[in-house]
Structure prediction request, 386 residues.
Amino acid sequence: MDHENDPAFPLHRRGKIEVRPTVRIRDGAGLALAYTPGVARVSQAIASDPELVFDYTWKSNTVLVVTDGTAVLGLGDIGPRAALPVMEGKALLFKEFGGVDAVPMCLDTTDADEIIETVVRIAPAFGGINLEDISAPRCFDIERGLQERLDIPIFHDDQHGTAIVVIAALESAARLTGREFADLKVVVSGAGAAGVAVSNMLLAGGVRDLCVCDSQGLISRDRPGLTGVKAELATRTNPRGLQGPIDVGLEDADVFIGVSAGKVAESAVAGMADDAIIFALANPHPEVDPAVAGKYAAVVATGRSDYPNQINNVLAFPGVFRGALDVRASRITTGMQMAAADALSDLVGDEVGPEYIVPSAFDKRVAGAVAEAVAAAARAEGVARV
Prediction:
């Protein structure tokens, strides 16, 4: 790599984040308040009433970003050290877009139990945990294991951040094409972290005709060899019992959502319903070339910034954690995620068009609208402390 001429390298020199104080110490009196003896009174108060930790420490506004480096971007298993620039970037986005402080933590283990135990041990200092770039199926076990043991939000962004923005975009696209969300025939390509989360939110949103496809073809109750998450997913999807390659599922389908690296032939796309909706989100190479998708679809979205309708997680996670932290939520529920998606789609509103189904990442309304919706949903579902 050309470190000297690639502009990415100077930007990353010495990292992209730092720790700064929120108060200044300029004399002995200030030192006595910020540290001993003044700090002892604060610690004693927290010892007597543990909930005060949210009022008098950074816990109320700080998230731990955790990875093991096994599924980083589109790079795969590159390890914890190589993952650190990405985790620093995530922390930067938390602060820039949501006003949330975040600390990157790259763990030198891929053992799910060790990851859970490590995070549980250091969790008292944080108001939430953002899991990042952890490969499936371990990511499901880690998220579930942490939420069972901790009373703060646990959020695997590769799953739920992606799902929130996909649902928001699909709500807008359905409105644009005159379809009812619940009546959509949807095919999801990919049964990893993002594919499973997107499928779960589609079902929660009322979609009834949903097929999921992995590298072996359509997932169905009759397909042998399914285990774990895929076996469970088979019981709730593919109501028509379709079998075979993805082409079978795409015949007359309204929606294609790609969250895998698997290419889809033009002939399969051509068999979709009129005014189809195609979200080809693999990055940097979409499952369906956008030029090909545009020949058959009324709405096309990708994961890339150089095409319209980028499905970008930064639309979701800063506001989701902002809202959860503001009400001191004990978890992030499906209802809170659906509220976030609805808020994003509502921001598009009547301005929806073929190249505008989600707000821009730089739309200053986004984080606040998502946070407000998430906080209200947390209160409604009884997981808010304040």
Observations:
- The radius of gyration is 22 Å.
